[in-house]
Design goal:
Layout: E1 2-4, H1 8-24, H2 27-30, E2 34-37, E3 44-46, E4 52-53, H3 59-78, H4 99-103, H5 107-118, H6 120-127, E5 135-137, E6 146-148, E7 153-155, E8 162-164, H7 166-181, H8 188-201, H9 207-227, H10 231-246, H11 249-255
Antiparallel strand pairs: 1-3, 2-3, 4-6, 5-8, 6-7
Helix pairs in contact: 3-8, 5-9, 7-9, 9-10, 9-11
Length: 256
């Protein structure tokens, strides 16, 4: 059993998402089974997942694990939309951040966001991302939020789950792989993993998928700026993200 503590609103979202999934299908295949909820919304207990996160895999193991994640996302999409009040479209914040968002940001992060808002070409391209369908999405799918044991890929940490564009989960995971590749060489197994992910997920490769991947890179840049990490890394994420959003043809080569 795994016991997790977090802010109550995040725990509420995760518990509701896992509970809904357990009613819709075999949740234990692709997500932890919800077990118990603590008093005063202080904690939740779920099935303990054993395995290795995607960040620690490479070569054939990485490719096969990405294919299993794609199958998990295909199943998740088949479950239909989540509850309407659990909306998961975080990329919209790149065009219109709320006052609450800005008040929690440090100066480097504010500067990063301001540079995005001053970029009219970028804002225009973000506006071209179509609405997509209302599917059940994980909402925070990065390399550390998937645990794989060689036979089963399990998506963990469902705090951002909700109704949204199914392509967002694909975009976030690919963006995290791209962000990691900024610190090393883009490998052949990275490209093969992305293609395996898309093929097994059944998601259509289009301009919006490429733009969403760019948007995910930009959001990662905001997070890097907020933590005060490498300024150079933040700039590289902004450049890579901007290029994908504005020129979606760059991204299509990643997926096919």
């Amino acid at each position: 059993m795994h016991v997790k503590t977090a802010p109550p609103d995040r725990l509420d979202r995760e518990w509701r998402a896992l509970s809904a999934l357990s009613l819709l299908g075999d949740v234990t295949t692709f997500a932890p089974h919800p077990l118990e909820r603590g008093e005063a919304r202080a904690w939740i207990a779920t099935e303990q997942i054993h395995g290795t996160t995607l960040r620690r895999l490479e070569g054939r193991a990485l490719v096969d694990a990405f294919a299993r994640v794609g199958a998990a996302l295909r199943w998740l999409r088949s479950c239909g939309a989540a509850a309407p009040d659990l909306a998961a479209r975080p990329w919209l914040g790149l065009a219109a951040l709320r006052a609450a968002d800005l008040s929690s940001m440090c100066e480097p992060a504010l500067d990063f966001v301001a540079s995005l808002h001053r970029d009219q070409a970028l804002q225009g391209a973000l506006a071209q991302i179509d609405a997509g369908t209302e599917d059940f999405v994980h909402g925070d799918l990065h390399l550390d939020n998937v645990v794989d044991n060689g036979a089963r890929a399990v998506l963990v940490d469902w705090e951002m789950a909700g109704a949204g564009d199914a392509r967002w989960d694909i975009a976030m995971l690919v963006a995290d792989l791209l962000a990691e590749a900024l610190t090393r060489t883009w490998r052949g197994d990275d490209r093969a993993a992305v293609r395996a992910l898309v093929a097994s997920s059944g998601v259509t490769v289009d301009d919006s998928l490429a733009r969403l991947t760019g948007a995910a890179l930009l959001l990662r840049g905001v997070a890097v700026a907020q933590t005060g990490a490498s300024v150079d890394r933040g700039r590289r994420l902004r450049t890579a993200g901007r290029n994908l959003v504005i020129d979606s043809t760059r991204g299509k080569g990643l997926f096919s």
